[in-house]
Amino acid sequence: MDEEDDIFGSDLEDEEKKKEPMREEDKKFLFRRELRTMLYGFGDEKVPFDKTLETLEAIVIDYIKELCAKAMSVGKPERINLEDIHYLIRRDQKKSSRVKDLLSMSEELKKARRHFEQTKMNL
Known about the structure:
The chain is built from 6 helices and no strands. The protein folds into 2 domains: 79 residues, Histone, subunit A; 33 residues.
């Protein structure tokens, strides 16, 4: 997927991480930073227990795996499209509206980046 097709965009820091191969121990903590931030936002301690983060991460990864497996069976075989995800969450109002919000925010960020790059090139 090239940058123009990336629906959530990426930071330079993320692009540098993609170039490096992932080690097995790094795969274990894919969402640790985000989960820690979310827990703190919902009233937990600034540094939550490691076991809490491990449990939540296991739940998140299981959910993502299940959703992807269902999306593979809904749409074209061996391929997941955004429409497949929309189809699977269409009855969950919270998830559906959150996906729409994130996609519109992503588009706004892409436009702002393009505008910034054009302005930077003109200077």
